[in-house]
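Take a protein:
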Amino acid sequence: MHILRALLLLPSLLGPFSAASNHADDMLGSPDSRQGTWGMAGASTHNYTFHPPGGYRVRILRVYGNLQGWMRDPGVPGKCAGVLWGLRSNGDDSSAMDPASGNTMLYIQDATCGAPFRDSVDVKIENGLLAADNVLRSIVAVFLNETGQPIHIEPSFTVVYRFEQMEQ
């Protein structure tokens, strides 16, 4: 009875809280056979699992930090590669906009032709409710990589989030 009483007294929102992380990938990719593309392409996913109290879900409110990277061997003149970083939920991937990916709250593209790049990010997230598994997926990719070299891609970021009581 005391536990039930305590649960009923919990607020519907807990937080906001914040957590910071980063991950790095060196990506060459494999031959890209999609129409209208060339070079190499590949992606890597890093999962971040939140642990809310029972009966709560996670909503991402803001992401800030940077995406940086560089060509591992910048001595390939005139050759470039595209890079991207995205954050998404494991929720339904369908979207009313075609082609598009649903449950994607951040999507940033850049490119390198040898020089290092660094993109600052500070985004208020409008659609940040995570799926019931409370997993935030951080995805990096390389595309149109014509350099023959791995591209170092490294997002470093802080996530501001809160716990929201699930509807009963």
